[in-house]
Task: structure prediction
Amino acid sequence: MSDKSIEIIYSIADIPDITDRSAFSAQALDFRNAAMEHIESALTVANLGEWEGAEIGADEVSFGFSVYDFEQAEAAVRQAVSGTRYAGICEIVRCELSENDFGGIAVDAKPLGFFGMLSLLIFRRLPKRFRDN
Result:
């Protein structure tokens, strides 16, 4: 059995119609919540996934869903946002872990803090700001 999830990421700099583009902008947070609800509705109606969590910071907003099929879920997301103010998705990241993967998770020496640990638990991967790119 494997556990699949997608994380949808928006760059705060690319969010339309907001004036505060700081890392923890209330306007960006409102956009994230509205986009998340819009996409969650599409995934729920199609029975393709359910909401797992959300994050804001490091000049981006993101949220994730547990999904059953990557292709169908991503197609539903892109269709749901097409022609809306939510169309500017920066990236959709796929994550799939099996039971065997949990035994091989490497420990990162960087402190994660509460939100980093929460993101690790929710999205089953390190937040973008903690990964070496």
Q: What stands out?
A: The chain has three helices and four strands. The first strand starts at residue 2 and ends at 11. The mean pLDDT is 83. The CA atoms of residues 54 and 63 lie 4 Å apart.
